[in-house]
Amino acid sequence: MNYEKKFLISSFLIIFSILFAFILYINYNSYNLQVGFLNNKTKKELIICSYKMNCPKTDINFIPKNKKPKPEILKLKEDKNSFFMIFDVPYLKKYYLKLSISKIEYLNALKKIKENIFRQFIVEFTFILIFSLILTYILYKPLKEAYKINETFIKDILHDLNTPLTSLKLNIYLLKKEIGENQRIKKLEQNIKAILNYQENLKNFLSNNPNQVETFNIKDLIDEKLSFYSINYPHIKHTNSADCEITINKNAFNSVIENIISNAFKYNKKGGEIKVYMKDKKLIIEDTGIGIKNPQKVFNRFYKENERGIGIGMNIVKKLCDELKIDIKIESEKNRGTKVILDLSRYC
Question: Which UniProt keywords apply (predicted)?
């Protein structure tokens, strides 16, 4: 599933990023340490040369002591082509001794340091890449097993629900034979159908395959949902002018529409209204209901603002929209209503 891929990618990136930052830090310090050793070596060579005064690779110069600004003594300095140091020699009263050494050897040595550090970095990079992959798999394996156990458990429950639901349907059918049609029996039938729809929604969420697509007109699907819920909510008016033929996973899209329209009826006001329409290839489902105080939290699992429901419907809707690559937005104002916007531009 897409969530498993997200877990694998995010886990790998976290592990790899931490290890990568660590080897960068190690190699940076190693480089600075080796450059420090090289600078100390250069400095020692010049100090030794100041005693021997017989160094073939060293240039000897003299600087007047009255020259300003006063030069720094025994400090390794560099110019364009050389490193040099200034010495205050006791027997030279008017001059400082300046010893210079070419940068060529230093730069060659520095190049070797960089090459060694780079080779070391490549080896370490390869190691942490392999290690990150292995560790991600080790972390993912028990999670995948737990997910499969959980998924199997839910599917078993959904399967077991079929027996009492079938029994209910049969008894209602027999009851209709005995006493005939009436409003209460219709409501019972609608409630059983609603349970079956929720069951189907959960099945779609667990086994959704976005590649299983079919072509249909969303107007027919939405009209069916509006008619279905209007039986239990006859006091709520509804209109549907959305007309767009799309090719998509119908089961998953049906679950999205089911949840949104169900909420539009469930949280509406008596005498309220539901409008469904298209604008700029966006499907808009608008109601005049109680509204949402924190619309940005609606997609959070188990979030709810009242006692009705358990707070997973819109979380499932968001995940199905992500699977279908549909951008979903919610605009709402407390006690004024809610507007759900589905961007179908990639389908319409």
Answer: Cell membrane, Kinase, Membrane, Phosphoprotein, Transferase, Transmembrane, Transmembrane helix
Q: Is 236 helix (H, G, I), strand (E, B) or coil?
A: coil
CA torsion sign, 188 to 190 to 194 to 196?
A: positive
CB 85 within 8 A of CB 55: no
Same domain, 99 and 13: yes
The last residue of a domain, from among 135, 170, 204: 135
pLDDT in tens, 73-113: 888 888 888 889 999 888 778 888 888 888 888 889 899 99
Spatial contact of 289 and 272, defined as CB atoms under 8 Å apart: yes
Whose structure tokens read 């969530």? Answer: 3
Closest CA to 264 of 284, 242, 286, 243: 286
Give residues with Cβ within 8 angstroms of 303, minimum separation 6. Answer: 294, 297, 311, 315
Number of compact structural domains in the chain: 2
Percent of the chain at pLDDT exceeding 90: 32
* Cα dihedral 38, 39, 43, 45 in deg (nearest 10): 20
> pTM for this one?
0.51
Which tokens is 231 given?
Answer: 């039986």
Letter for the amino acid at 338?
Answer: T
CA pair distance 27, 123, nearest whole angstrom: 12
Q: Which helix (H) or strand (E) holds 217?
A: strand 214-217
| pLDDT score, position 25 | 94
Sign (positive/negative) of CA torsion 280, 285, 290, 291? negative
Print the domain residue range for 257.
Answer: 212-343
